[in-house]
Design brief:
Shape: elongated
CATH class of the largest domain: Mainly Beta
Mean pLDDT: 83
Structural class: alpha+beta
Distance between the termini: 34 Å
CATH architecture of the largest domain: Distorted Sandwich
Domain Membrane insertase YidC N-terminal: 73-336
Number of strands: 22
Family: Belongs to the OXA1/ALB3/YidC family. Type 1 subfamily.
Strand content: 25-35%
Helix content: 25-40%
Biased composition (Low complexity): 32-43
Strand order of the largest sheet: 7-9-10-11-20-17-16-13-14
Membrane topology: Multi-pass membrane protein
GO molecular function: membrane insertase activity
Radius of gyration: 30 Å
Low-confidence stretches: 1-13, 15-54
Number of domains: 2
Length: 537
């Protein structure tokens, strides 16, 4: 009975864990990273806390303001090509040079800001509820920019909205995906102003519609850590994070478009409009005295969810890579995976090597498990007698069975121990493979042997022919046939169902994870075969 409960708990736990892709996040202790920008003109001084209105920076002046409506300029770096519009400094395009939409060699580059998204004004500012890109005159200082990996450059957009002058100095770097902005709001009127500023991003879907393993979702980093909103029904109605946020982003497992203001008392909100994902981070109560100026620093990140690039961003943006409860297991597994890849140059082979290493670590537990199962097999006749003798007194039957286990020093749950221990490792690796952009379009066996049919050419996608999950299910069935059958009929039926349950669950899993579990089963079968031969020799 104890063994049956353990088996049931293991199966149900694994089903729940695997089916629930997005668990409660943990807040990693990521230190705050300061960023600096380089601009063509000196950045305005920030007022120190405690300065009076009379000491605030002076307002910008527009002695020779020349609006340039509709002008576009291109920023080209080794990592991306961005196209901006002079009207408000909006993004029209943002193509990632190192990522393509499909595995085809001639596939278009991933464009985080396509023509459809441009209609919702990516990187647009909203002042007091009014979009600054509508009915506002803008000019641009600077032209097209081309950078190498070590270069930086700035472009300045200036707009006039009533008595407010908006100056946006955007700085680009050839070594990362950050766009740093120095924003100044100048009050040229005779009366003090109180402004509410919304900093926005807008993107098309970053993953396929209905993809439950890789959803496009809104994310905020607030006082509780990372908050994820992936229900499209709720996003269509509009959602808001009631806690103060540090940044907001629209992201998938592999890409992120986010806004990271360097200020406090921010509120985040997001909504799906016309099939597009919009997100805003609001700052209320910006006090600007007559003839004064208010300065803000804002960073935008548009790029892959690669740890080395996210770490360059301020305010814990690296927390966007969320491994859930098993973060402490997933991170070292990712490092080991990359370690093996650096030697073999193939992530599929790296997964196999990682599996062998994990199996070697669990070898003593597995050995003990097989011994426990053999001992349980020897006790089956005695257990059957107890079940028959006390079939009308379940409590007495359990007491006698426990006494029998104690007499022969057998742990009825010993055979399940390796499975229980491996659940966190399995799910940690599951999350690691699911969120590793390095596995996106990473090939293992590109073509099915002796054919020209694409097979395991993308370890982040399912096996297109379901070959690996079916073989994985067959290895589980073979493994059970080699394992001593449990005496409890109910338990035996559960064990027979497990290969079917696992095969069904794994059909649409990323092929990299299926490869891990398949290799794990093969090694287990080899281990059991070796132990049986050793026993009979």
């Amino acid at each position: 009975m104890e063994n049956k409960r353990v088996i049931l708990a293991v199966v149900l736990s694994l089903v729940v864990l695997v089916g629930w892709n997005f668990l409660f996040p943990t807040k990693p202790p990521v230190p705050k990273t300061e960023t600096t920008t380089q601009t063509q003109a000196p950045a305005p001084d920030k007022p120190a806390p405690g300065k009076t209105e009379a000491q605030a920076p002076k307002a910008e002046t527009l002695a020779a303001f020349a609006p340039t409506p509709g002008k576009t300029l291109t920023v080209d770096t080794p990592l991306y090509t961005a196209v901006f519009n002079s009207t408000g400094g909006l993004l029209s395009r943002f193509s990632l040079k190192q990522y393509r939409q499909t595995i085809a060699a001639d596939s278009p580059l991933v464009d985080l800001i396509n023509e459809k998204a441009h209609a919702k004004a990516p990187l647009g500012l909203i002042l007091n509820g009014t979009p600054t890109w509508q009915n506002v005159e803008w000019s641009v200082q600077g032209g097209d920019v081309t950078l190498d990996a070590s270069g930086t450059a700035s472009v300045t957009f200036v707009g006039r909205m009533g008595d407010t002058i908006i100056k946006r100095v955007l700085t680009f770097s050839g070594s990362n995906y950050l766009i740093d902005e120095k924003l100044s709001l100048s009050n040229t009127g005779a009366n003090p102003a109180r402004e509410r500023l919304s900093m926005t991003v807008a993107v098309d879907r970053l993953s396929a519609e209905g993809d439950s393993y890789n959803p496009t979702q809104a994310a905020f980093y607030d006082t509780s850590g990372l908050e994820l909103f992936h229900s499209e029904k709720k996003l269509a109605e509009g959602i808001a994070d009631e806690k103060p946020v540090e940044w907001g982003a629209i992201m998938s497992n592999y890409f992120l478009v986010g806004v990271i203001p360097d200020t406090t008392d921010l509120r985040g909100k997001a909504k799906i409009e016309d099939g597009l994902f919009r997100l805003a981070v609001d700052k209320d109560g910006l006090e600007i005295p007559a003839g004064g100026r208010q300065d803000l620093t804002i960073s935008y990140y548009l790029g892959p969810k690669a740890p080395k690039f996210l770490a360059m961003a301020p305010h814990h943006l690296s927390a966007a890579i969320d491994y859930g409860w098993f973060d402490f297991i997933a991170k070292p597994l990712v490092k080991l995976l990359h370690f093996f890849y650096n030697y073999v140059g193939n992530y599929g082979v790296a997964i196999i090597l990682l599996t062998v290493l994990i199996k070697a670590i669990f070898w003593p537990l597995s050995h003990k498990s097989y011994k426990s199962m053999e001992q349980m097999k020897k006790l089956q006749p005695l257990l059957s007698q107890l079940r028959e003798k006390y079939k009308d007194d379940r409590q007495k039957m359990n007491e006698e069975m426990m006494q029998l286990y104690k007499t022969y020093k057998v742990n009825p749950a010993g055979g399940c121990l390796p499975m229980v221990v491996q659940i966190p490792v399995f799910f940690g690796l599951y999350q690691a493979l699911l969120h590793s952009i390095e596995l996106r379009h990473a090939a293992f066996i590109t073509y099915f042997p002796f054919t020209h049919h694409i097979w395991l050419a993308d370890l982040s996608a399912k096996d297109p022919y379901y070959i690996t999950p079916l073989i994985m299910g067959a290895t589980m069935f073979l493994q059970q046939k080699m394992t001593p059958a449990p005496g409890d009929p109910t338990q035996a039926k559960i064990m027979l169902l497990m290969p079917v349950i696992f095969t069904f669950m794994f059909l649409n899993f990323p092929s990299g994870l299926v490869v891990y579990w398949l290799v794990n089963n093969v090694i287990s079968i080899a281990q059991q075969y070796w132990m049986l031969n050793k026993k009979h020799s």
